[in-house]
Amino acid sequence: MCIPSNPQILDVRAVFLYSRDVDLRPLDFPISNCGNCGLSMSHYDQICVEQVVLDSPIQSDLLTESPLAQAYQHSLMLSRDSKPPRQEILAFANFSDTEQAYAERFWSDQTQPVFFMTLLNLGPHADLSTVEARIHSIFDAQTLVYFTFDYNDLVIFHKGSSFSEYVHKLLKVDYGGNDSSAWISDSITLYSFPESFQTSSNAMTTPEVFGAYLRMGVANTSVMEEFRQRLLKDSPSTEVNYILGRHDIGFFQPNATLEWIKAVQELIRSTSQEMDKKAADLVSPIWYTTSTLSIRIPPEESLPELGSIVWNGTHIQSALRDSMKTAYEKFCAAYEDTRYEFGITADDVWLTWLKTGVQQAISFLENDLTQELGLCLVPLYQDFLHYSTDLWKKLEPLVSMIMISIRGAFFEEKRNVILWTCSKTYPFLWIA
Question: What's the predicted TM-score (pTM) here?
Answer without folding.
Answer: 0.75
